[in-house]
């Protein structure tokens, strides 16, 4: 097709919510949707070439089940509740007269062999939340169409027709008309699409307005239970929706650019644009543009080629000192020209001179609150500079329909993408204008638990459940794993060592330096040993739990097992000693924390009971729990846990983690409580596994203000932890309980580079952040940079006074030449501390160049003061 000289343009704006009359319509919502007016929508699938996507006006359930073929949209499988939702038109109150029609061609040669099913339309689609996205993914409404036997179905009613079987091709017409008595009359006609000859007309039916209020969808509902057959059911064309009092928003699209995320690291911009599956369209393009010097400038342009349907843009030597608008431009060829779509955002100027760097902390996102607009609204009331998503951006069951482990490779990619796209649909406004780190956890690669074993392939001969996971490695094939990883993490700074692991699975662990803070980004699943493969058989390990209650895991601290792996340990050893790029403070980002901060009823040998546990009243203490021994956490293997902490604390590193479904603030201990750094584990956004921490202590004086669960403990593996705050669930007596009663929310970590402090905040979901009790009890918590190592240090080295204006980095090295710690000085006077008596060397560096070296012996008493000139 020749390119037309003109281009049609559409800007993909922010997500707009919707409301139904049953909840009331605020003036704000009314502004977002057009006021009621005459609307005539008509599908335009005939303008596109064939592709695995229905177009930007639609959301398909599932993504892989709907394709454009020969000018029509086709449901390419036979399965339960397949539907295609229109995003741009809403019937708010259900009181408008409607004229609807669509032409349906049955593709299944034996559709009437199925006992139950319906093909047609879904009217009045509504989800659990007043938002068109909720309706698109989870919407339920009034089914109107023909059954697999050719009979008319209107909701639960079945009306006899003259058809002995469903016609191979037919036009479905639906007309409604308001009744003076309330509600509407509804008439359904079946026509021959070739000559518009009427084949059937239903009697006049009465329906309630509330049954028609909502959005519209096409329906292919063949009830096979959970079974899905790779047999096309039917295709739809010439879909028309017409009404005199409908609402329309023609920019309320999703795709062809769904969202984008980026990082800026040492002058290199990496921006990943997530696109829809339009790659088969000949002549399409995806480009990145920035607004500079009063005009849009194209930075890069190309085609969509990745299995994950994403486009990575890399820009070297980014030196902008002010915010720069960007837009991702997609050009899609159509029969009447090229249509151009834009997704806009902002590349923020790196806030190098800003005293605080504020980090939004998010993790663990099931679909219970989808589309999660309350989280986005609350976050936008806060001032944050970067956001970090620490894993489980979705779960296997996200969006319904289960998970596709097997079958055609690209279908499995699209199954992943539907869940990932839901994540972006919820949270793209969080990172549209801010740099963002995203890391994958177990559920992001379709695992309940993941012990990567350096990239091996799991034994799936016994299925895709716990037995496969216990064998170690990845259940999905390497190409799929690489697709899933790259889609979520491809925008991160380049890997420290990009050498793939086993099966050719890629790595992404890396260092991100931004605005004076250096982040180490880990993959704490990929190299970890599977406990079932390294512990004695008598332990009886299942799903990472020891089922033999007589087996003492604390006696197996020194087993030959990996946690982070040698490669990541090497990376961390270099990172803690790297203070280049004007780095002042260090943050570790990982999927989970280095402890097991959870309890279960005493005697539990698995965590299957977690979702069913009693939810206490506020202020109540749960008795009878004991520390869990969940080897999914980084509390195991214990020896490697300790070795990892010994490395990390050398850089005075604060740890931010996710995964645990329980917000916590703890201090790690190795040889004694409090001798290592602090860790903040953020609460889950949507909590599928509501853990808790009720240690067996005297709780007689327990209260919300003075919780009995804080203090020094050893977890189930014997690891030392000092617990300062926990987001234990309690009964809010509000619905939906699955959100309110599972201690959901998000975190914020504020790093003050001048004062060298770290403040952790932990916000409750469904609480306005401006309310006095918006945070969970115990937060906010502030610690200092030196607290990450010096809290329990008993010995001192000579007090140092810097006489020059330049503040150096101090390195303390022991007698063996090993690094004890490394730190850029914040003030001219500094008292170095150490944990052991002995001889040390203090090295002072500027721009990584050694300027001064002083040898000294540590002392538990008074120490001399020395002055040095750099």
From TrEMBL:
Name of one Pfam family that matches: PhoD
TM segment ranges: none
PANTHER family linked: ALKALINE PHOSPHATASE FAMILY PROTEIN (AFU_ORTHOLOGUE AFUA_5G03860) (PTHR43606:SF2), PHOSPHATASE, PUTATIVE (AFU_ORTHOLOGUE AFUA_6G08710)-RELATED (PTHR43606)
Database matches in SUPFAM superfamilies: Metallo-dependent phosphatases
Identification of the protein by name: Alkaline phosphatase D family protein
Organism superkingdom: Bacteria
InterPro entries: Metallo-depent_PP-like, PhoD-like_MPP, PhoD-like_sf, Phospholipid_Metab_Enz
Domain PhoD-like phosphatase metallophosphatase: 367-668
């Amino acid at each position: 097709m020749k390119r037309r000289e003109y281009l049609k343009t559409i800007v993909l704006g922010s997500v707009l919510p919707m409301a139904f009359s049953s909840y009331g319509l605020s003036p704000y919502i009314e502004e977002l949707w057009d006021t009621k007016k005459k609307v005539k929508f008509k599908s335009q699938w005939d303008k596109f070439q064939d592709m695995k996507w229905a177009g930007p006006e639609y959301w398909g359930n599932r993504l892989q089940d709907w394709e454009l073929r020969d000018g029509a949209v086709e449901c390419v499988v036979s399965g339960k509740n397949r539907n295609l939702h229109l995003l741009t038109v809403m019937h708010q109150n259900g009181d408008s007269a409607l004229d609807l029609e669509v032409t349906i061609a049955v593709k299944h040669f034996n559709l009437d062999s199925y006992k139950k099913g319906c093909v047609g339309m879904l009217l009045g689609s509504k989800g659990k939340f007043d938002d068109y996205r909720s309706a698109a993914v989870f919407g339920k409404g009034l089914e109107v169409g023909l059954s697999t036997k050719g009979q008319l179905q209107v909701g639960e009613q079945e009306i006899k027709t003259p058809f002995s079987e469903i016609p191979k091709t037919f036009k479905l017409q639906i007309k409604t008309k308001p009744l003076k008595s309330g509600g509407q009359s509804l008439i359904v006609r079946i026509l021959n699409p070739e000559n518009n000859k009427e084949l059937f007309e239903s009697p006049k039916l009465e329906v309630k307005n509330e049954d028609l209020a909502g959005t519209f969808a096409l329906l292919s509902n063949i009830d096979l239970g959970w079974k899905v057959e790779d047999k096309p059911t039917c295709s739809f064309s010439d879909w028309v929706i017409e009404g005199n009092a409908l609402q329309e928003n023609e920019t309320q699209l999703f795709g062809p650019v769904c969202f984008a995320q980026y990082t800026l690291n040492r002058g290199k911009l990496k921006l990943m644009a997530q696109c829809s599956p339009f790659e088969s369209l000949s002549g399409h393009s995806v480009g990145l543009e920035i607004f500079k010097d009063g005009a849009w400038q194209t930075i890069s342009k190309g085609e969509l080629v990745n299995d994950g349907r994403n486009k990575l843009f890399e820009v070297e030597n980014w030196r902008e000192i002010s915010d720069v608008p960007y837009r991702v431009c997609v050009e899609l060829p159509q029969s009447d020209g090229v249509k151009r779509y834009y997704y806009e955002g902002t590349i923020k100027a790196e806030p190098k001179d800003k005293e605080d760097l504020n980090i939004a902390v998010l993790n663990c996102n099931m679909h219970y609150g989808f589309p999660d607009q309350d989280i986005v609204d609350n976050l936008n009331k806060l001032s944050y500079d970067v956001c970090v998503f620490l894993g489980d951006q979705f779960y296997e069951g996200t969006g319904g329909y289960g998970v596709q482990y097997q079958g055609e490779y690209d279908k499995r990619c699209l199954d992943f993408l539907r869940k990932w796209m839901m994540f972006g649909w919820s949270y793209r406004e969080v990172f549209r204008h801010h740099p963002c780190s995203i890391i994958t956890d177990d559920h992001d690669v379709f695992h309940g638990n993941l012990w990567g074993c350096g990239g091996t392939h799991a034994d799936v001969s016994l299925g895709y459940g716990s037995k496969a996971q216990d064998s170690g490695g990845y259940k999905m094939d390497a190409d799929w794993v690489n697709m899933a990883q790259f889609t979520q993490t491809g925008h991160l700074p380049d890997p420290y060592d990009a050498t793939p692991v086993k099966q050719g699975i890629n790595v992404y662990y890396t260092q991100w330096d931004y605005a004076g803070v250096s982040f180490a980004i880990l993959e704490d699943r990929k190299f970890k040993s599977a406990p079932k493969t390294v512990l004695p058989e008598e332990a009886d390990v299942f799903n990472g739990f020891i089922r033999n209650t007589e087996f003492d895991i604390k006696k197996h601290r020194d087993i030959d097992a990996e946690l982070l792996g040698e490669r990541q340990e090497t990376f961390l050893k270099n990172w803690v000693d790297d203070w280049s790029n004007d780095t002042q403070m260090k943050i570790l980002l990982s999927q989970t924390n280095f402890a097991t901060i959870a309890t279960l009823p005493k005697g539990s040998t698995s965590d299957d009971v977690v979702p069913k546990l009693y939810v206490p009243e506020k202020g109540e203490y749960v008795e009878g729990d004991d520390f869990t021994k969940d080897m999914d956490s980084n509390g195991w293997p214990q020896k490697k846990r300790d070795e990892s902490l010994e490395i990390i604390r050398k850089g005075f590193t604060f740890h931010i983690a996710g995964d645990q479904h329980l917000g916590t603030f703890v201090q790690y201990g190795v040889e004694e409580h409090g001798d290592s750094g602090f860790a903040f584990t953020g609460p889950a956004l949507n909590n599928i596994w509501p853990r808790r921490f009720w240690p067996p202590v005297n709780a007689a004086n327990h209260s919300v203000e003075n919780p009995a669960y804080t203090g020094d403990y050893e977890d189930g593996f014997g690891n030392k932890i000092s617990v300062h705050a926990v987001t234990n669930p309690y009964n809010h007596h509000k619905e939906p309980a699955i959100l309110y009663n599972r201690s959901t929310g998000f975190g914020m970590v504020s790093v003050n580079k001048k004062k060298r402090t770290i403040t952790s905040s932990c916000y409750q979901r469904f609480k306005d952040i401006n309310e006095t009790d918006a945070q969970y009890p115990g937060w906010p918590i502030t610690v200092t940079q030196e607290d990450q190592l010096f809290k329990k240090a008993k010995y001192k080295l000579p007090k140092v006074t810097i006489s020059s204006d330049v503040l150096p980095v101090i390195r303390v090295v022991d007698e063996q030449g090993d690094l004890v710690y490394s730190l850029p000085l914040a003030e001219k006077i500094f008292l170095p501390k150490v944990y052991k008596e002995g001889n040390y060397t203090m090295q002072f560096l500027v721009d990584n160049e050694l300027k001064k070296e002083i040898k000294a012996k540590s002392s538990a008493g008074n120490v001399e003061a020395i002055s040095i000139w750099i």
